[in-house]
Amino acid sequence: MDLLLQFLTNTGYYLADYRNLVMIVIGCVFLYLAIAKEYEPLLLLPIGFGVIVGNIPFFKGFGLGIYENNSVLHYLYFGVTTGLYPSIVFLGLGAMTDFSSLLARPKLMLLGAAAQMGIYFTLLSGLALGFLPKEAASVAIIGGADGPTSIFLTAKLAPHLIGPVAIAAYSYMALIPIIQPPIMRLLTTREERLIRMPDPKREVTRKELLCFPVIGIILCCFLAPASIPLLGTFFFGNIMKVSGVVDRLAKTAASSIIDIATIFLGLTVGASTQGDVFLTPKSVLIFALGAVAFSIATASGILFAKFMNLFTKEKINPLLGAAGVSAVPGSAREVHLVGQQEDPGNFLLMHAMACNSSGVMGSAICAGILWSFNVG
Fold first, then answer.
1. What's the Cα-to-Cα distance from 159 to each of 26, 44, 45, 166, rounded to whole Å?
2. What does the pLDDT look like over 182-229, one tens digit per residue?
3. What are phi and psi of 40, to 5 degrees?
4. CB pairs under 8 A, 24+ apart, for 100-105?
């Protein structure tokens, strides 16, 4: 009987805390959104299942939890806390990115820069609400709508906030179809949404595509050396793609390698949301600030596009500003869909991808700047 009682007291049913149950419900919601609604399933499915795994109650000291030394999850989590997984993801993103549209119309890069305003507004808001500078910087980067960048910066500045920051960043990336369209319609007129973007007047040469990653890494990382771990792998992946001499490496980076990193990144980030660690007032505030950051980033890109139209003869569809956030390719796809709702013959996807790719670079540079200001 004693052995039976001891066994029962060691089961998850006995050890369960209401916070674990709340997080398991949240994990199930993520799975539902990924499977039934197909909201960024590559992100939400591993994260949602990881949330469930991380909130199964267990007895401490047996090497089971993600925060316990020598546990399997702890070793897998090493790639998150060191920034390894985000760098690998950026390698794959670079190998998948085509800069032709951006090079054909370079002014679209400005929209990617404008969309980063959400980061700096949220930084000031976080400081005003009592976050420490390193914590405020980690929360602010959510405005870039870039999960890997958010995880990378938070791992360097505020490791104790990786769980809520990562979940917030990936949640808003997955909820782009819900968050961004109302902001797009609110800030643009129907006439503006009907603006068609003409095909570029010139064709981008192979030499330009080869020079861009070299020039890009020099310009960006000289400006913000702390962005080397992200942009270094990003531009390396891209030059492998455009060089044409290492196709096998480029295809591996764009498929197997990024997929493996995404699996472990999502699973361990989800598992890091143990109820007793994750469910705190600060986590709720991070979610609120993240929503504000993402909304302001979207609005900033749209408003800056409208501002550019005051001075340019060739008008830009302001919807493209919403793709300035670095949620690849979700925000670009949403811009295209909203544009086609007004005019089925309006194809904005390639132009939106140009803004999207510049947003990736912009958020990584912002992360490098914030990290450099918070060293020490």
1. 22, 21, 23, 11
2. 999 999 999 999 999 887 767 899 999 999 999 999 999 999 999 999
3. 40, 60
4. 100/204, 100/209, 101/200, 101/350, 101/351, 101/353, 101/354, 102/354, 102/357, 102/358, 103/204, 103/208, 103/209, 103/212, 104/200, 104/202, 104/203, 104/204, 104/354, 105/200, 105/351, 105/354
The whole-angstrom separation of Cα 238 and Cα 260 is 19
Give every CB contact of residue 195 below 8 A, 6+ residues apart in sequence: 315, 316, 317, 318
Q: How many CB atoms lie within 10 A of CB 295?
A: 17
Q: What is the DSSP letter of 257?
A: I
Q: Which amino acid makes up residue 207?
A: K
What does the pLDDT read at residue 288? 87
For residue 342, the surrounding DSSP H or E stretch is helix 330-342
Instruction: Name the strand (E) or helix (H) holding 13.
Output: helix 12-15
Q: Which of 18, 19, 26, 75 is nearest to 287 (CA)?
A: 26
pTM equals 0.90
DSSP 37: S
Among candidate residues 320, 337, 273, the one with its CA nearest the CA of residue 111: 320
Cα separations (Å) of 283 from 8, 199, 275, 277?
32, 45, 11, 10
Look at residue 369 and tell me whether its pLDDT is greater than 80.
yes
DSSP code string of 51-94: HHHHTS---TTSS-STTSTT-HHHHHHHHHHTTHHHHHHHHHHH
Return the minimum-mean-pLDDT range out of 21-35, 143-157, 177-191.
143-157
CA angle 232, 233, 237 (to 5 degrees): 120
The one-letter amino acid at 308: M
92, 238 Cβ separation under 8 angstroms:
no
Rounded to whole angstroms, the Cα distance separating 340 from 332 reads 13
In angstroms, rounded to a whole number, what is the distance separating the alpha carbons of residues 44 and 267? 10
Query: What residue ranges do the domains of the chain occupy?
Result: 80-373
Axis-axis angle for helices 117-128, 281-309 (nearest 10): 140
